[in-house]
Amino acid sequence: MRRGIAATVILVGLAATGCGAGTQEDLVVTGTPPPTPYAGSLNVPVKPLPEDGDEDEGSVSAMRASSGAAGRALECDGDIYEGGGADRWSKGDGGSTPEEGLQAYFDIEQPEVPRYGYRVEREESGRVLFSFDVDGRTKVAVVVAKDRPHRPGWRPETSAACDPAELPASFTDSKDYEIWTDRSGRRVATTKVSSAVGAEHCDWQSAHFLGLGHGRNSVLYARDPEKVLGTALLTSAYDGDVPLPADARDTGYRFHDWQLWVTPEKSKVYVRTPDGVEAWPRTKQGVGCA
Q1: Which residues, 6+ apart, have CB-to-CB distance to 260 below 8 Å?
Q2: Would 22 be classed as within a structural domain?
Q3: 51 in a domain, yes or no?
Q4: 34, 19 Cβ separation under 8 angstroms
Q5: Which of 256, 222, 254 is nearest to 236 (CA)?
Q6: pLDDT computed for residue 231 by the predictor
Q7: What is the C-alpha separation between 205 and 199, in angstroms, rounded?
C-alpha cells in the first residue's frame, strides 16, 4: 500500500546497489553482507491490511503488522513506507528457485522500487530474504517462500520498503518522484512533503500539486497558472505574484529553485522562485477527475 501524495489525489501516471557486485540490470547480485544483517526469524505471523476506508488503513502500525519479517528487516531512517503480504496462488504459478519467486514479486505487485541489485540476506527452512541496500542498510525487503499452504513453489510471501526519499537518487530521478531537500541538502521523506505534476488524463499537466503530511492528516495545495483546476477544486485562486506575508516562515524545504514558505493560516502556502513568490491555495476534499 503506497502512501503519500498519490494516495490523496490523482497526479501522475505514477545510485549504488548496496554491497553487491553486478550491473544495474542484475535482479540479484552477490557480495559482502551488510554490517548488521537481519538475524530474526523469517517465519513471522502477519495480519491482513485493513480494508479501504478503515481508520488504520495505510497506518505505520498496520503495515508493520502485515509485512512480517520483511518489515522487520528494514533499516529505514524514518517509518516504513509500504508493506504487506501476498495472496494465495495456484500450482504452476510458483517459481522453481528463490530468484524466480523474487521476479514474481515484481511481475505481480508492480512495486515502485528498484528492480536490480537485490542480495540474499538470510535463508531459513524454505524461506529466503532478499534485500536492496543503500549504504549498507536495507531499504527494500522481500521474503519469498516455498510450498506454503495454498502457495506451491517459490513466490513472494511478504514485502516492505522505506520511503522513496531513502532510495538512490539515480532511481527516483528516473521516475515521477519529486524529492525535496532540507536546508542541509538532505532528502526529505515524501510523507513530510511531496509534489507532482497534474495528471495527463485529466488535462492537468499545467498544474502542480504539493502535499504536506500523510494519511488523514495530509493537506494538499495546488499551483494552477492556466486555471485548469478551477474554483470547484480550489479553496481560493492561485496567484503567481504576491508579496511574502510578514508572518511567513521558511520551512527549509527545497525542490530545485523552489523554496517552501508557510504561515500560521493554512489556507495557502507560498513558493519562492527566482522570479518572485507564488501563493498556492489549499485544495478541497476529494480532488480528482472523472
Answers
A1: 180, 193, 210, 250, 251, 253, 254, 269, 270, 271, 272
A2: yes
A3: yes
A4: yes
A5: 222
A6: 82
A7: 6
What are the backbone angles phi and psi of residue 88, rounded to the nearest 5°? -70, 160
Quick one: DSSP state of residue 97?
A: S
| Residue linked to cell 530521478 | 173
Domain region containing 140: 17-166
Final residue of a domain: which of 137, 166, 195? 166
Question: What span, in angstroms and rounded, lies between the C-alpha atoms of 266 and 86?
Answer: 40
Q: Which residues of the chain have pLDDT under 50?
A: 1-23, 53, 55
Q: CA-CA distance, 161 to 71, in Å (whole number)?
A: 8
CB 81 within 8 A of CB 161: yes
* Cα–Cα separations (whole angstroms), residue 274 to 241, 256, 257, 271: 12, 11, 7, 10
Amino acid (1-letter code) at residue 177 = Y
In 3D space, the residue among 51, 125, 133, 55 whose CA is nearest the CA of residue 84 turns out to be: 51
Q: Which three cell numbers, joined as nine digits, stand for 36?
A: 548488521
CA 42 to chain centre: 24
Residues 183 and 161 in one domain: no
CA 179 – CA 61 distance, rounded (Å): 24
Q: Report the C-alpha gap between 281 and 137 in whole angstroms.
A: 39
pLDDT at 23: 45
pTM: 0.86
Cell of 59: 497506518
Question: Which pLDDT value is given to residue 51?
Answer: 65
